[in-house]
Amino acid sequence: MREVMLAKSAGFCYGVRRAVELARRTAEGGGNCWMLGDLIHNRFVVEDLARRGIRKTADSALLGPDDTVIIRSHGELKSVLDALEQRGVRCVNATCPNVIRIQRLVAQAEAEGRQPVIIGEAAHPEVAGIASWCLSPLVFDGPESVQAWLDTPESKREIPMTVVAQTTCIRELFESSWKIIKKECTNVKIFDTICDATHKRQSEAAEIASQVDVMVVVGDRKSANTKHLTEICMQSCSRVLQIEAADELSADDFNGCSVAGLTAGASTPAGIIKEVYATMSEEIRAAEGKEESFEELLN
Ligand code: F3S
């Protein structure tokens, strides 16, 4: 039996990898490079980009024609992008194509007289960005809030609706939400916009969590997809640890554990996963006396 079961889907997704590569290439070109807040939800990556010369600002109004700004993979508010363009700021758009598709879907829905409905976390930058592509979106974080809205006098069930999901939404949560809307409202179009990478990562995490004594989820505490992975793992494993880096683990975490599982959020670099894997292997090896390399498991 393996000591540590490593999820093959752990770590950078296509959209995050693309954003980081675009940012690094932009930095190599020199000049005044900026990111608006964190480019991705991982402090190690953000610190690395800062060392390469990409500065962070929360105030896009300070940027001008001499500046280049890299738009994060989650996307940005439409009003911010419009203002940057008007001021002549060069924008390198690293918004994930999956997110751009949702932005277009909600804009098109509204143009067609439909009510855009987003299932996701209203405060998350991706959702705030998507919502900004239309004038009056409805954002629900799950079936309870959908039902609560339907129970209010303001809900208009006869209005045509277009329902989309935050790319990292938990699938069950999305499905239970749209099913309520579909049942109660007369004209509903549903677009399953949960990204494939997220879906695979969540399924694999659930599968591994159901077979191990301890499940470790690595990712930034601000990362929504990491948080969702933790929630999913907790459904089938009673000992789930969410950490940002290997130094948060201790031997006590693996007491009585013969098999542990490891997955990581979409913004977690391979180097961090490798360190966590090595630390976990050390602890478990003490119990079972067996070793397997990180590279072997990825191949
Ligand atoms: Fe894009 Fe999916 Fe990653 S939406 S940023 S590929 S999690």
Automatic annotation (TrEMBL):
Positions annotated to bind dimethylallyl diphosphate: H41, H74, H124, S223, N225, S267
Binding positions (isopentenyl diphosphate): H41, H74, H124, S223, N225, S267
Binding residues for [4Fe-4S] cluster: C13, C96, C195
Binding site for (2E)-4-hydroxy-3-methylbut-2-enyl diphosphate: H41, H74, H124, T167, S223, N225, S267
Active-site feature positions: E126
Protein's job: Catalyzes the conversion of 1-hydroxy-2-methyl-2-(E)-butenyl 4-diphosphate (HMBPP) into a mixture of isopentenyl diphosphate (IPP) and dimethylallyl diphosphate (DMAPP). Acts in the terminal step of the DOXP/MEP pathway for isoprenoid precursor biosynthesis.
Family from the record: Belongs to the IspH family. Belongs to the bacterial ribosomal protein bS1 family.
Protein name, UniProt field: 4-hydroxy-3-methylbut-2-enyl diphosphate reductase
Naturally occurring in which organism (per UniProt): Pusillibacter faecalis
UniProt gene name: ispH
Coverage span on the entire protein: 1 to 299 of 656
